[in-house]
Design goal:
Blueprint lengths: L31 H8 L14 H14 L3 E5 L2 H12 L5 E5 L4 H10 L6 E5 L4 H7 L6 E5 L11 H10 L3 E5 L4 H4 L9 E5 L13 E5 L4 H10 L6 H12 L1 H18 L6 E5 L9 H7 L7 E6 L2 H11 L15 E3 L11 H7 L5 E5 L5 H11 L1
Parallel strand pairs: 2-3, 2-4, 4-5, 5-6
Antiparallel strand pairs: 1-7, 6-7, 8-9, 9-11, 10-11
């Protein structure tokens, strides 16, 4: 990337330490022969940024290396990455088996949008291998799960699910956003495709909107084409910012995980807190899976429930402005969200009850501040 910033600029032997930003939407070529060589894949090069650009390629290569994947593609958002994965695999009339604890917009994609094109989705408790096995009595093209569910942080047995999928000639796709490749790499446990929202921990500063799709095998040409055709591409500046965030991801993830683990032990002792949910706690239903599949920490996400329901949540948010209400996650600072009003707003009351998403539930995205600072703000809210 750093060999040529502009055809009229000669850097000599100087190489920029920071990767350059290639903001251009289009690239010039000397002649038609050069165009043909690039179009035919005979030599590297770029033509139009929707088809590819240096910043997206650089970020994709870093993501592929982190995940141990054969290839990676950067898309304009996490949902764009999920869409790319689905479009690469699914045909009209196919069937998806999906976890019944997915992010709300993912469920809407499967049930509302894909349903319009003749694709059916069967939802199962992906934590129950027998339910998944029963779902495979009818043919399915794709099995889709999250490493850790949003917001209740339920984990799945990646290895067993991969075996079930492959035994039934099914593509196994994992959304790894909450874990990031720092904590686990689903491809190492048998996943065929992995999606992540780079907007979250990987970007790390709430200033990018990006997603990535990583995979094994020969899917890349097909994915590259459909990302261009469907307009799912990422812009250069966000890719440049995400690459910068990626450099500090291991440090940030380690610090945030340590804070989250400490808060999970501290919160049950606090007034008005009735429940704490964190995979690093021994009473979490998937603690054993967390110990098996998560390396170096149990994540930066936790939930706690307040006595008093929605009114108590409102009081908490008003009295603890140092923990901003932000319906996203992964910033360097600690933020909170209210799943019942945001990510699961359109989920039925019965389904919220089944998952344990009450009006008093707060989801905390733990940042890298000093632990005492986070605790002091939470005390104000409680």
């Amino acid at each position: 990337m750093s060999e040529s910033l502009h055809p009229d600029v000669n850097l000599g032997r100087s190489v920029p330490l920071a990767p350059p930003l290639f903001q251009s939407a289009v690239y010039t070529l000397p002649d038609l022969d050069a165009l043909e060589r690039i179009m035919n894949g005979e030599e590297p090069g770029f033509i139009y940024a929707r088809d590819g650009h240096p910043n997206a390629l650089d970020l994709a290569q870093q993501m592929a290396a982190l995940h141990g994947a054969d290839w990676a593609m950067v898309c304009g958002s996490g949902m764009a990455a999920i869409t790319a994965a689905i479009l690469a695999v699914i045909q009209q009339g196919d069937r998806i088996i999906a976890s019944d604890r997915l992010y709300g917009r993912t469920s809407q994609l499967f049930s509302q949008e894909l349903g319009r094109f003749g694709v059916t989705t069967t939802y199962v408790d992906a934590c129950d291998l027998e339910q998944v096995r029963d779902a495979f009595r009818d043919p399915a093209r794709l099995l889709f799960v999250e490493t850790m569910s949003n917001p209740m942080l339920r984990l799945v047995d990646l290895e067993s699910l991969a075996s079930l999928a492959h035994d039934n000639d099914c593509i196994f796709v994992v959304d790894n956003t909450f874990a990031t490749p720092i904590l686990t790499r689903p491809i190492c446990y048998g996943a065929d495709l992995v999606v992540e929202s780079l907007t979250k921990m990987i970007g790390g500063h709430s200033d990018v909107t990006l997603g990535t799709l990583c995979g094994q095998g020969d899917w890349l040409p097909q994915v590259t084409q459909l990302v261009s055709i469907w307009g799912l591409a990422a812009n250069p500046f966000d890719c440049w910012l995400a690459s910068r965030g990626l450099a500090t991801l291991p440090l940030r993830m380690r610090a945030a995980c340590e804070n989250a683990q400490a808060l999970a032990a501290w919160l049950p002792l606090q007034r008005n807190v009735s429940r704490v949910i964190y995979p690093g706690m021994s009473d979490h239903p998937d603690h054993a899976l967390a110990r098996k599949f998560l390396d170096g920490g149990f994540g930066n996400m936790l939930c706690f429930e307040l006595r008093g329901g929605r009114d108590a949540v409102n009081r908490f948010m008003r009295k603890a402005p140092g923990i901003p209400f932000s319906p996203s996650l992964g910033n360097i600072t600690t933020t909170c969200s209210h799943p019942a009003s945001t990510s699961h707003r359109y989920v039925s009351p019965a389904e919220k009850k089944r998952q344990g998403i009450s009006d008093g539930l707060i989801r905390l995205s733990v940042g890298i501040e000093e632990l005492s600072q986070i605790q002091e703000e939470i005390r104000k809210g409680l």
